[in-house]
Every structure is written in C-alpha cells, then in structure tokens.
Amino acid sequence: MSYEAVGKLVDLWMSDPGFRAQVKKDPKAAARKAGIELKGEELDALNSIDWNLPDEQLQTRISKIP
Amino acid sequence: MTATTTLVTLTLNAAAFDRLLASNPNLKAALEENAEILRIAKFLKQATPFTALDAAPARRLAARLQRLQAEAGAAIVTEGQAGDACYLLRRGRVEVAAEGRTLAALEAGAVFGEAALLTEAPRNATVRALEPCELLVMRRRDLLEAMGSGTDVGSRMVGLLRLRERPARKPGVVAQERATADHDVIVTLKDPARPAYFRLSRQGWFLWQKLDGRRTLRELTLEFMAAFKVFAPQTVSDVLISLSEAGFLDGGRLRGDILHSLSRASWWQAALIRVRRVMEWRLSLHGLDPVLTRLYRDGVCRLYTRTGQAALAVIAAAGLLVFAAGASSARAALAGHWSNPTLWFILIPAAIAGVLIHESGHAFTVKAFGREVPSGGVGWYWFGPIAFVDTSDMWLAGRGPRIAVSLAGLYAQAILAGLAALACRLLPPASLLAAASWIFALGLYATALFNLNPLLEYDGYYALEDLLERPNLRRRSVRWLARDLPRALRAGRLDGHGAELAYGLLALTYTAAASALAGMLYRMFALGPLSQVLSFRAADALGWAVVAGVAFISLLSLAQELAG
Known about the structure:
The structure holds 2 protein chains of 2 kinds. By secondary structure, chain A is mainly alpha-helical. Chain A contains 4 helices and 2 strands, in the order ααααββ. Chain A has helices at 4-15, 17-25, 27-33, 41-44; strands spanning 56-58, 62-65. Chain A is elongated. In chain A, 30% of the residues are buried. Chain B is α+β, with helices and mostly antiparallel strands. A 4-stranded antiparallel β-sheet of chain B has the order 1-8-3-6. The two termini of chain B are 50 Å apart. The interface between A and B is large, with 41 and 64 residues.
C-alpha cells in the first residue's frame, strides 16, 4: 500500500478544520468529496476512525488518613 | 438598502470626492490606510487561526500588522535562528525546508513561523519565497492582544503548532510494561525529574516509540495506519496533545506569557482553583525515600517475610476477636474514666502514633515492592486534617501490589488496634490504661472503616480504582456522567462504562446523604445547646446553613473534577 492518497487526506485534515468535521461524520464521503480516490486497504482503514484510547496522565496517589 | 426609519442622507458624488481628496492629501492617506486595514481584516478572517475573531478585534489586529515584501528566492525565516514573529502569506508562494529537505510549498492564506512565536524554540525550518510575495508580520505582542479579545485565536494557533511540529520524547522518561486484568498490555511512563506518570495503551506505546523528533503528525498517522489498519489522525493528535500537556514531550513547550494568556480561567474556574488550594492544602516533606529505604533494609523488611506477616495477621485477628468479645465490659470500665483529663493526655499522642503507623504501613509496603516514596507530610482535605505519603510510584507496579499498598495503612492500623485490644484484655479491667487502650482500639477500627469508603479519596478509593483497573476513577466518572451519559442513554448502551455510571451516581448520592447526615447530627447534638445561646430560629437557620455548606463543598469537589 503506497498511502499516497491517504497522505493527501492527512494534509487536508491538518489544514482544514471543516474537512476534519466532515471526516468525523463520514470519512468515506469526505474523501470522495475532496476528490481523493482510495482503494482496498486504504478505504477499509476509514471504517473505524473514531478510536478513543485510554491514554492519560495518572493523578498523584496520596495515601492519606484523616 | 431600505430605510427602516425616517432619515436624512448626505450625498457626495465621485467627482466632488476626488476633488476633496486631491485638495487634502492627509485625508486621502487616512482613507487609503483605513481601506487597507479593512482588506487585511477581511483576509485575516479567512486564515484558519483568526476566523473566530470578531470584526472590531480583527480590525485592531489588522492595524497592528506590519506589511512585508519578499523577492523571489529571499529567505523569510531561517532555520536555527531565534524569532518572535509569525507570517501570514497574503500574496505569492513560499517553500518550507528543514535540514536540507523540502517539506512543503505554501500558498496565499497560509500561516508560518508560529512555533517561534509560541515557544522558546528557534526556527525549525527555513521559509523562502518562490516568487515575489507580500506578507503580514505578526509579533508576539500582537498575538497576545488578539488572545486577550476573548476569542479562541490562541488555542487555534497552538492547535496549528501541534499539528505541524515534530514531537520528541522527553529524555530520561522510564517506561514499564505490564498486562492488565483484561490481558491488555499497557505501558506506564515515569518522568523521574518531577515525578509524573502517564498510562499508554498498546497503540499509544507504538506512537511513543516513534516520537524521535523527526516525524510529523502526517508521518505518524501513516505509520499508525500501516500498523493498525485504521485512519486515525484525531486519535494520534489526541495522544500527542495529552503527552505534551502532561510534559512528556521535549521542546515545543509554550512560552510563559502565551501559556498564561491561554490558561486565563473564567471567574468560577479561578474560584474553584482557589477553593481547592485551600481545601486540599498539603505541607510536604521531601527526601523521605533514602530514610525509608534504610529503615526497611535495617529491620522493617523482617515484617514482610512470611513469618513476620503470619505473626502480624495473628495479632490483628486475635485483637479484633478480643475487642468484639470485651466490648460491653470495656464500655462499663470506661464510664468511670471518661471525664479524667489524664485519659486524653494518653490518647492524643497515641492517636498521633496511630497516624504514623498507618502511613508507615503504606510507605514500607511501597518499599517492599521496590518502589519509591518521594514525599509525605500533613495537610487539610476538604473536611479535616490529614497525614499522607505519596505512593504514586506504585503506578509502575501491577494491580495486586497497588491494592496491597492502598490497604497496607489500614492493615497496619488493624494490627495496632489488635495490640491495643490485647493490652486492654491484659491490664486490670477498671484501670485508666485499659480504658485508654479500648478507646484507642475503637478509634482505630472506626477510622479504618471510614478510610475504606471508596467515595472519598482515601485508601478504599485507590483500592477500588485498582481493582477495576480504572485510573482517575473519580474524574473519569464525573466527566463521563456529565459529557457522555446523554449520548449513552440515546444509544441505549453503556459500552463498558458501567463502572463510571455506578461510581458517578454513588458519588452524587453520597453528597446528598452526607449533607442529610450533617443536618441530622446537627439537630441531634448541636441544635439544643445552641438554642439556649442563640434564638431557636437562628440555631435552626444555622443547621440549614451547615447542610448547605456540606452539599456545596461536596459538589464543588465534583465540579473541580469536571473542570479539570
């Protein structure tokens, strides 16, 4: 997979907040509307874009007694 | 144009206007300048970071911007040099290059050079005009003024910076990999310099390893896609922003004045921060770890052997049985000593010793698992004074050891209470020391039960969040309830957030119950005596004020979690 088309998609995503909103709503339609042709694995990769990772800063653990 | 009221208009035809301008060069210049400012303001509102600016601030900003012409081939910014301005390309095209590599070509409407404006870092690329260009120069003071206009220009500029930068891992950060109870692999990062901790998923860990300062969000997104078969620029960006905000990325730190301007809180957020500072005040003693390490090695470690633990368990269990069996006779003996001041001279230092033993239980168990205790101390936590030790280093350990450390203080307390109950049994039944031992044991058991309450941020809370593998459970639950519950209700599914729902609802219920209990206790014990000093109406009103105060402080604590 060359990812050339996906690279264009990322460029657009980075530069245009409106496009970001469209991608969030319907990634495949947003790509089509932007004139970016995706195929095979590239297209499949747009199926589940809304990943919510549990990565976070951990709060200080203060073991205390009243 | 349609007149909506009666009005008088003045007309100036073009010829007369031209004659007026020809005879007043100053007026002509002023009008031309004003027209140019309006054109720049219109242009600004088309550039991404400034689209949210209102007309008046946009005109003010436009008036401040300096105009710059660049010939084809001229370097506008040079890699490695310091800079305090960013550029808006009004006309022409420019090329961005770093380390001899062309990165991008930008066209009219593009903004560049924002990194040096927002951070202390030198220019990270050279930008050269590809054709004659017209630019607008924005200095840091101009940006600060635009940020002060109450719009989100600052955060948009920072967003632009974050999308373009090449994030790098902060040096010296330690990573510890482990499996969770759900058999997921997570990695905990520790920055020993502060210390601070960050939890990464398998995907987050993948990204962390790629943060070498050479890849942009574009490259990271493509590599993420190759590894996980998903197009997720938002996910990648979110992880990078979280790491950056937590201080785990090198460079790119925002300048103090920019940060100050960005973090200007609303009045209620500022009030919450101040209240929290007072309600969660702590006096920390740093440098405890070497002392604890020596004490642990020189003798305390024997308590953590099988024999030592068996002996302690026997004391705790036997003491509890003796305490329960002798409760009625001890209460009778106590009646004779209740008003004896010597009793309190014994109990006050004993209570302090109890607190020390509890905290030592936490601290030495941390040492038993080979982790650090950076600090300990005393302070105030919402409704009363506290003593504490910082056991954050246990974030690097597995779930079992973390739960053990959380409960170790209570266990140490139970052992001490057991010793006190056994002493009470051995001492002459009606003696002052027997009475003091029994009250001491009772106090230890009672505070241990209180400490187990997972709805307050004491030991029971940490044990529960470890048991559920939900770090930051309180904050997570309050936020989920406020932000995601309506969506979950509409969708009719919780998507694995049952723990957040249950904990959040229990926390709210507890707030109501605590307020009601405060009112009840006031009426049982304080209303009568106070009615004799104040009027009944005033004493009654005071009771309601106590209820409102407890509810307010509890809700404030939850609101603080929501606000972050």
